[in-house]
Amino acid sequence: MINAIHGHVMEIKPDYITILTPGGVEYRLEVSRNTSDKIAALPPSDRSSLRVLASLQHREDAMTLFGFQSEEERFCFEQLQTVPGIGARQAIKILSGITVVNLIKALDSQDVKTLAKVSGIGPKTAQKLVLQLRNVLVLDEDGEEASDSALPAQEYRDMVDSFVAMGHDRRLVVRTLSAVIKESEEKIKGKDYRQVEPLIFSIMLKRLS
C-alpha cells in the first residue's frame, strides 16, 4: 500500500499534482481543489521536498493515485466512499467544493441544503451523507475551532470506535479524547502510541463511565 509520496512538486493543477521522488520516479496524484490551493500557496522551498498522503484506487480498468495534504481529508475521502453511489472521483470532487471542517459542520447540523449545493452531491445524496456519516465524521470541540486537526489522529480512531461500540456517543468520545490527550501532554511526550494507549484508554474509561 502506498501511504505517501515524498519529493519535489513539479506541477500543480486544480485537479492534480505531479511529484518527482529522489529515486527519479514521477507520480501524478489527483487532488481536491482545496489541497491543490494549499500546495500552490506553499513557498518554493517547501514544495521542493513535500510529503503528500496518498490513496491508491485499483479498478479493473485503471489504477489511480489520489493525494491529500492532511490525514483528515484522506479520512473523509475514504468515508465518503462508504456511502452508496459515491466513488473515488465523486468523493474528491465533493472535497473540492467544501472544506473538511465545513463538511463535518453541515453533517452535524443536518444541513442538507448546504450539502446539496456542493458540486457532486445533490439533495438525495446529501440526505444519504447525513444519515450515514453524521456520527462518523465529527468535530472535537463542537465546531468552535475550525482547523484541519478537527478529527482524532489516525492511531486513536480504533480507540474511538471501541468506545462507540460500547454504546457511547461518538461526539462525546471524540471531545473526551481530545481533552484527555491535551491534559496528558507532558506524560505522553516522546512516547509512541503503544506506550500511550493503555494510559489514555484507562482515563477514557473513567471519564465515560
TrEMBL record:
GO cellular component: cytoplasm; Holliday junction resolvase complex
Keywords: Cytoplasm, DNA damage, DNA recombination, DNA repair, DNA-binding
Xref: Gene3D superfamilies: 5' to 3' exonuclease, C-terminal subdomain, Nucleic acid-binding proteins
Domain Helix-hairpin-helix DNA-binding motif class: 78-97, 113-132
Database matches in Pfam families: HHH_5, RuvA_N
SUPFAM superfamilies: Nucleic acid-binding proteins, RuvA domain 2-like
Keyword Plastid among UniProt keywords: no
GO biological process, one term: DNA repair
A Gene Ontology molecular function term of the record: ATP binding
Subunit structure: Homotetramer. Forms an RuvA(8)-RuvB(12)-Holliday junction (HJ) complex. HJ DNA is sandwiched between 2 RuvA tetramers; dsDNA enters through RuvA and exits via RuvB. An RuvB hexamer assembles on each DNA strand where it exits the tetramer. Each RuvB hexamer is contacted by two RuvA subunits (via domain III) on 2 adjacent RuvB subunits; this complex drives branch migration. In the full resolvosome a probable DNA-RuvA(4)-RuvB(12)-RuvC(2) complex forms which resolves the HJ.
Annotated domain remarks: Has three domains with a flexible linker between the domains II and III and assumes an 'L' shape. Domain III is highly mobile and contacts RuvB.
Similarity field: Belongs to the RuvA family.
NCBIfam families in UniProt: ruvA
Record protein name field: Holliday junction branch migration complex subunit RuvA
Taxonomic lineage from the root: Bacteria, Pseudomonadati, Spirochaetota, Spirochaetia, Spirochaetales
